[in-house]
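ZP: hey, is the WTA complex queued? I don't see it on the tracker
AM: it wasn't, my bad. submitting now with these inputs:
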Amino acid sequence: NYRIGMASNYLRHGESIANFSSGAGKISRINAVTLGESPASEENDLVLPSDEFCRQALIPNPQKYLEMYKRSVEDPAGFWSDIASEFYWKQKWGQPVFSENFDVRNGPIDIQWFKGGVTNICYNCVDRNVESGNADKIAIYWEGNEPGFQDSLTYSQLLQRVCQLANYLKDVGVKKGDAVIIYLPMLMELPIAMLACARIGAVHSVVFAGFSADSLAQRIMDCKPKVVITCNAVKRGSKTIQLKDIVDTALAESSKNSISIDLCLTYENQCAMKRGDTKWQDGRDVWWQDVVPKYPTSCMVEWVDAEDPLFLLYTSGSTGKPKGVLHTTGGYMVYTATTFKYAFDYKPSDVYWCTADCGWITGHSYVTYGPMLNGATVVVYEGAPNYPHPGRCWDIVDKFNVTIFYTAPTLVRSLMRDGDQYVTRYSRKSLRVLGSVGEPINPSAWRWFFNVVGDSRCPISDTWWQTETGGFMITPLPGAWPQKPGSATFPFFGVQPVIVDDKGIEIDGACSGYLCVKNSWPGAFRTLYGDHERYETTYFKPFPGYYFSGDGCTRDKDGYYWLTGRVDDVINVSGHRIGTAEVESALVSHPQCAEAAVVGFEHEVKGQGIYAFVTLVEGVPYSEELRKSLILTVREQIGAFAAPDKIHWAPGLPKTRSGKIMRRILRKIAARQLDELGDTSTLAEPNVVDQLIALADC
Ligand code: WTA
């Protein structure tokens, strides 16, 4: 019954978009808005794409969008199979094109797209480009952390590298369906390893190389990989991080729990560390360079069903245990390719740079798969975006003539703080489309990105999506309609977002509430690895009949969507999703910590920071040394990116009589909104609140 209300859904925002193009007098050009100026209402701010941009855009006007959107929701099977037909399928999918049960009340949630279709995503990313005349086109420009270190691969060279690794993996016994953990920094070997796994039907699970040994061990124990792929060390900024040591610790930890890994394939990253300095376990550890280059440069593709798993990616939820988000092959392929193409108005002459790491979903869908499925030239940057100076990004943009630049608001804010001079000393004239992802982009950062970085020429695609969604869900299509700074605008083709209230009732028109989706889309995740029940409980049970995103959202009078942040116990730090429960469980593992409660608070650069209320074991005094050691515990157990920004000593925590911590109050204390604490009379001990306030700035 997902079709009910469909027509009104697209008309709802359709009409308002249509108004823009009919010159309804609502549009004012704000390209000239000066920095820092805050207009009365963001809602009324419209930024028009230039005529020049629209003339060349894939979706040049609202009518074209509406026409395609209408078809995508009225005839999803036809819409998506037309697009899917542009890829190579060894065998075409069966009927129906897709099937879904999206309503827990009707049985288990089940989403399938292109079932029966036989394909391979690596073939479509690489071989297909080589065979269609792009063999000599650059697939990857690689830029090292240290200026001056660079490399590149054409599509045919990429194919050879992928095949050598694929052959090696097959030779050591990796088979279709086996898991492979990849713990690598942004070397070219990272996308190569992902593609090699996909080529042989193995399921990759990339673990962001900023995660600690404990987090890595947890993931190894969950998915039990045949092989772990890593490198000895990496330089990030001026620091050298010895990744192999972290892997050694993780492997020791997992073998204590009877998960032993027989093979650790280690790339020698000479820029960071020589092999002689690397700790080694003979019999288990193998240097990539010693074995992989000996293998043949061609490798038969393992053809897989569209619904065979492609990868697992762990993400944070509201409990301490990370969730293994599982994506399958066919739908993900079609969806990432299509979203990439339209949201960035991709043309074959583009040079595309996404600053995300392949350890997160953005690097999966929009460094590796989406762009390569389009035969794009992708910049892969190993280092820190402000190293050795805050102009490094624009130096790289000019060097490779980057045309599409996709990043996170946290980076925009930090570069904005460093000053315009680092931007304006570079030409940036190649840029034509900008993108933002990971957290809501505040209007002032949006304007700086637009005016200063993009010289008021480049539309910004503020793409809202999630690890779970596989690809963009709500995003501008540059050239299609006016933008509003800070709004992700309208849904992508085939996506029917809805806003529901506390009771799960869909609300119409301008409103605020919980963001849900009421139909499946090809890139949707299919399950949580090994825990379909948690999949249903977390995403489909809160509001039966819908997929619940965990985000709050406002729809304005013109139908534009504005994401307002997580409404669950997940915080978004520099665009990284962190579960408060994960940080709490790390803190309470400290022998001197009795209890911890973690909330997010507004942070100027990171978007949200981590604020931890900590109750110490009876008799232990609070000290600076202890504060540092608590933070260190979190770094060791999760990773540096999850380190609390603030530790607040809490002799007691505000709890209800049934013992539930009232986080609402803690959030207000963290934000220092002390006059907005609300009703504290239901607390078991109302005076703990005064105690906490008294200790706020100690
Ligand atoms: C947030 C990252 C506002 C949101 C792709 C979501 C955003 C979570 C945006 C997913 C955006 C992502 N505007 N919020 N453009 N993009 N988010 O799984 O809270 O790492 O639920 O995927 O990031 O984070 P994840």
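AM: back. Residues 315, 360-362, 436-440, 462-467, 488, 549-551, 563, 565-566, 572, 577 surround WTA (CB under 6 Å).
ZP: great, adding it to the tracker
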